[in-house]
Specification:
- This protein is of the alpha/beta class and 483 residues long.
- Helices cover 37% and strands 13% of the residues.
- The protein has 14 helices and 14 strands.
- The strands form four sheets. It has an eight-stranded parallel β-barrel with strand order 1-2-3-4-5-7-11-12, surrounded by five helices. The chain has a two-stranded parallel sheet with strand order 6-8. Strands 9-10 form a two-stranded antiparallel ribbon.
- Helix 12 runs parallel beside helix 13.
- Belongs to the glycosyl hydrolase 1 family.
């Protein structure tokens, strides 16, 4: 049973977005193409493609997205009306360093975020800034093969120095990489690693990708993250710098001991490898065997291990949308998910895109993570992608979204009562934005509706859903009023 008033008064309630799915203005004021800007539209049936050159007549959703670039004042005002204590956002790297290897930052890009942070400060909303969120300058991919090149580390640190210095008195919380562990799977090669793709333009094509390349790219990101932590603390000792994991919660399909070992190993490699390196400052012991079995050899430069040890993060964040089943194949088909997938769980329902809904799994994950790391935790992505219907009177009655988030908040509170040091919750896509996985607008997460469709048509008008008013009550009551 949940204890009353279990959340601290300082708890950070808010919402989360990413520049490439939200900002638009892809080529304005000195910005150049990012990796996301080369991804076409798609659906959950027709996959997105990655093009090496922009194709005339092809729709690229991130180019306009939902145009936060020109609506930031309106949107932040709406966030403030909901009572946001914090707002997780990302900075578009290619808006600050358009070619990645530029010597000096783009002043016009810096000025845009000056305005955004000033607006947030006006409403006492704490920014939580993701430095790299599935969006690197496309020039990094073209010229260097993204994070496969060690040169990316210096470009990233140069970028960090520019934004840490510029916003040292405006931003306290930073996250180095979004869902860094997505580089473990082929879908993350381009999305997270900015690695080259071949002419097919498909995420899972392996002609120019390999586990070896992805894990080497991941190592470069580990070093970059650790260097950023050290640099950030030098620039402002009050900075809090965190990691971000796409948490893949996989249950054993049976109580067969071999299935339990499969679940253990998936948890280790999918979730704990990146957490251990960034929180504990070293590769975990289990990684040696897993790398040997896959014939992976990480090329470490002299001093890398010391850098990792000195650059441990201050807090741990993760995304949580669903769970799945691993091990002996149970009856039923595979389930869909956020990068990682598995088998269907007969005890769970799924959303319209096949992601299984498991609020209790959130409590399990929070306890599991905190037991291992014992540092403050934030849930920085959690939400329900669904098709919303605008009624004739303009209302949007998204009770399904309210129920989803309510059930997860209840389990979140149970975890806090269990003893987990949870300091914040930011619902994903607090305003409708472009889906990263499918490029759709139809797959909506927001408390705020944006008038735009899958083909890029619409007025971009913002309107409040039923969940807007519900979440406002949740925040006002610090999570006590959930009905």
């Amino acid at each position: 049973m949940i204890k009353k008033n279990v959340l601290p008064k300082t708890f950070l309630w808010g919402g989360a977005t990413a520049a490439n799915q939200y900002e638009g203005a892809w080529n304005l004021d000195g910005k150049k193409a990012s990796t996301a800007d080369m991804m076409t539209g798609g659906t959950h049936i027709i996959p997105r493609r990655i093009t090496k050159k922009l194709e005339q007549g092809t729709y690229y959703p991130s180019h306009e997205a939902v145009d936060f670039y020109h609506h930031y004042e309106e949107d932040i005002r709406l966030f403030a009306e909901m009572g946001f204590k914090c707002f997780r956002m990302s900075i578009a790297w290619s808006r600050i360093f358009p070619n990645a290897d530029d010597k000096t930052p783009n002043e016009e890009g810096l000025k845009f975020y000056d305005k955004v942070f000033a607006e947030l400060k006006k409403y006492n909303i704490e920014p939580i800034v993701t430095i790299s969120h599935y969006e690197a300058p496309f020039a990094l991919t073209e010229k260097y093969n993204g994070w496969a090149s060690r040169e990316a580390i210096d470009f990233y640190v140069n970028y960090c120095e520019a934004i840490f210095t510029r916003y040292r008195n405006l931003v306290k919380y930073w996250i180095t990489f979004n869902e860094i562990n997505s580089l473990l799977v082929p879908a993350g090669a381009y999305l997270e690693g900015a690695l080259l793709v071949d002419d097919s333009g498909l995420f899972n094509n392996t002609n120019v990708d390999s586990t070896q390349i992805r894990l080497q790219a991941l190592h470069h990101q580990f070093v970059a993250s650790a260097k950023a932590v050290q640099l950030g603390h030098e620039i402002n000792p009050d900075f809090k710098i965190g990691c971000m994991i796409n948490y893949s919660c996989g249950y054993a399909s049976t109580c067969k001991p071999e299935d339990m070992v499969i679940a253990l190993r998936q948890d280790q490699i999918n979730n704990m490898l990146c957490g251990d390196v960034q929180v504990l400052g070293e590769y975990p012991a289990f990684a040696k065997r897993q790398f040997e079995e896959k014939n992976i050899k990480i090329n470490m430069a002299e001093g890398d291990e010391e850098i990792l040890k000195k650059g441990c993060v201050d807090f741990y964040t993760f995304s949580y949308y669903k769970s799945h089943v691993v091990g002996t194949r149970p009856e039923g088909d595979e389930t869909q998910g956020n990068v990682f997938g598995g088998f269907k769980n007969p005890y769970l329902k799924a959303n319209d895109w096949g992601w299984q809904i498991d609020p209790v799994g959130l409590r399990y994950v929070l306890n599991h993570v905190y037991d291992r790391y014992r540092i403050p935790i934030m849930i920085v992505e959690n939400g329900l992608g669904a098709v919303d219907v605008v009624e004739t009177d303009g209302t949007i009655n998204d009770d399904y979204r309210i129920n989803f988030i309510k059930d997860h908040i209840e389990q979140m509170k149970e975890a806090v009562y269990d003893g987990v040091d949870l300091i914040g919750y930011t619902a994903w896509g607090c305003i409708d934005l472009v889906s990263a996985s499918t490029g759709e607008m139809k797959k909506r997460y927001g408390f705020i509706y944006v008038d735009k469709d899958n083909d890029g048509k619409g007025t971009l008008k913002r309107s409040k859903k039923k969940s807007f008013y519900w979440y406002k009550k949740v925040i006002e009551s610090n999570g006590e009023e959930l009905s």
